[in-house]
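4.2 Preliminary Data

To establish feasibility before requesting continued support, the project team ran the inverse folding procedure on a target of 440 residues. The structure was first converted into the token representation described in Section 3, and no sequence information of any kind was made available to the design step. The complete token record follows.
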């Protein structure tokens, strides 16, 4: 998928409006989160920085993991509210003609025909700039909202995902690229021989097909997958063109890349067939300046803020966990939740099993991913080191912030010019589609 060795850039907008960011100077207080102007301005900023993709995660739930109720999440604005961002993307695409858009939809709760049709249609609306982030959904309340009494076992969710993604891709291919004839003389709109039934009858899904959407402007929307567990790597190895990964050190990034490469080869694919966008926080300033900014941010929050965030992510009620408990002693309890175990395992390995959950909660508030700090040149030095260590196969997605969109603006105005000056990222969009830009 990623034919070039350039650094590709994306921004995670999933929680730009929540997780205490709404309180901070440089945030979006002057806007209304549910209106388009905030997001259209972000899209224009991304266009200025030649950002490949803006990304929206999804979890259709109101978290109740901390304390067993939704009180903490709603009162503090933690992962709530969570609008469906599908209607926002066409407005952003119109405001920023070069930027691509990643949107999340679950293989556990959505029929593959619906996913295939929606993303193919959105690809037309955006002029070929859509990506589908396929997730198996690891939140108990989300399962309840979709009518499940409990979260399905991880093995079941991943088995469903393999079948689901296979069907979606077949639906996208069910109308051949040259099926549309448009012959006004003969009156033939399309060639029926180039529109194909699926007649898929699988273990989890039955889909007749074909897809009633014209061929995608970019062949098919980009397929993204974000699982870091062995099951997630295997799913990406078979189906994904791009992966998101949260690894906190260069060493763990390289290890993740090796695991992904092995999965790709196991499924008869090349390591170049799937790039990785590594989650980073880029902070312009001295380490002392950045540490002071973070200290003020953390001290402005309720003391249990970190534990609330971890509860929402990992499905564990940390209101019932002694803050002095070591991370290494939480592995079994986190694994039982059937959720984001891969992330937690990487955190234990990189932060150390003896770090307490209270300490990690404070760290997580500002360092949810790998953090790069310094002058623009120093930041680019660190990004280039990560890029080289992982095969120059993908790039970076800006993860989290304490001022939205000010941290993104800082990156676009100071770091991107240094990346471009060194020839590490492109200075203009290569084409009209997201696929073209990810391959340039």
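Position-by-position output of the design step:
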């Amino acid at each position: 998928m990623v034919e070039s060795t350039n650094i590709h850039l994306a921004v995670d907008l999933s929680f730009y409006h929540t997780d205490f960011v709404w309180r901070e100077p440089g945030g979006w207080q002057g806007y209304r989160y549910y209106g388009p102007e905030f997001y259209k301005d972000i899209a224009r900023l991304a266009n200025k920085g030649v950002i490949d993709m803006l990304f929206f995660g999804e979890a259709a739930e109101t978290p109740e993991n901390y304390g067993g109720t939704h009180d903490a999440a709603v009162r503090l604005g933690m992962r709530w509210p969570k609008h469906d961002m599908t209607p926002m993307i066409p407005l952003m695409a119109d405001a920023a003609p070069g930027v691509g858009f990643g949107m999340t939809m679950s293989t556990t709760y959505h029929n593959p025909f619906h996913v295939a049709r929606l993303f193919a249609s959105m690809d037309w609306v955006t002029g070929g700039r859509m990506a589908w982030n396929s997730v198996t959904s690891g939140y108990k309340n989300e399962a309840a909202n979709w009518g499940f009494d409990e979260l399905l076992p991880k093995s079941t969710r991943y088995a469903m995902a393999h079948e689901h993604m296979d069907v979606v891709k077949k639906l996208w291919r069910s109308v051949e690229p040259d099926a549309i004839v448009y012959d006004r003389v003969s009156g033939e709109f399309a060639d029926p021989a180039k529109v194909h039934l699926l007649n898929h009858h699988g273990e989890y899904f039955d889909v007749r097909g074909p897809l009633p959407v014209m061929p995608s402007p970019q062949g098919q929307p980009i397929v993204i997958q974000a699982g870091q567990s062995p099951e997630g790597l295997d799913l990406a190895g078979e189906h994904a063109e791009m992966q998101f990964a949260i690894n906190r050190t260069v060493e763990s990034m390289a290890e993740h890349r090796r695991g992904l490469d092995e999965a790709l080869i196991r499924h008869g694919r090349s390591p170049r067939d799937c790039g990785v966008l590594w989650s980073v926080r880029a902070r312009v300033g001295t380490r002392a300046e950045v540490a002071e900014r973070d200290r003020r941010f953390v001290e402005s929050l309720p003391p249990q803020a970190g534990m609330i965030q971890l509860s929402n992510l990992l499905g564990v009620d940390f209101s019932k966990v002694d803050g002095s408990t070591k991370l290494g002693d939480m592995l079994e309890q986190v694994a039982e939740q059937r959720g984001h175990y891969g992330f937690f395992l990487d955190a234990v390995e990189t932060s150390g099993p003896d770090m307490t959950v209270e300490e990690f909660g404070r760290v997580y508030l500002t360092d949810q991913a790998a953090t790069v700090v310094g002058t623009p040149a120093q930041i680019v030095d660190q990004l280039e080191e990560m890029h080289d260590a992982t095969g120059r196969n993908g790039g970076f997605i800006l993860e989290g912030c304490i001022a939205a969109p000010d941290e993104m603006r800082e990156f676009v105005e100071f770091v991107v010019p240094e990346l471009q000056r060194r020839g590490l990222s492109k200075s203009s969009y290569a084409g009209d589609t997201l696929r073209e830009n990810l391959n340039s």
